[in-house]
Amino acid sequence: MYLLRNGNNGVAHYWNGVDTVCKMYSTSSMRKKKYKVSETNLGKKICFMCQVNNKKLLKPFVDKEYEQAKEEFVIQLSTM
Ligand SMILES: [Zn+2]
Fold first, then answer.
1. Cβ–Cβ under 8 Å, residues 50 and 19
2. Which of 3, 6, 36, 52 is placed for a possible disulfide with 13 were both Cys, Cβ 3.0 to 4.6 Å?
């Protein structure tokens, strides 16, 4: 699940059900009414801190785009 800011701007955060993976939801003054939980990231970029924290999780948040980007990155490296 993702936490998205309402409207067209902003990034998508990974949403674990209680908090964003970057912990911004619980530690900052994110105005909660301005966000919504969504099944998809609606094409928005994933929050950088969410991506960094996601890699440290024992059970990483599974994200198709993230997995795809990672694969592409590996392919790029192997063809260099
Ligand atoms: Zn985030």
1. no
2. 3
Q: What is the pTM of this model?
A: 0.70
Distance 1 CA to ligand 1 centre (A): 12
Under the banding of pLDDT at 50, 70 and 90, the label for residue 8 is confident
- Mean pLDDT computed over 58-63: 72
For the chain, what is the HEC assignment? CEEEECCCCCCEEEECCCCECCCHHHHCCCCHHHEEEECCCCCCCECHHHHHHHHHCCCCCCCHHHHHHHHHHHHHHHCC
CA of 76 to the centre of ligand 1 (A): 26
Burial track 27-38 (b if 16+ CB lie within 10 A, e otherwise): eeeeeeeebeee
**In the numeric block, which tokens belong to residue 50?**
């969410």
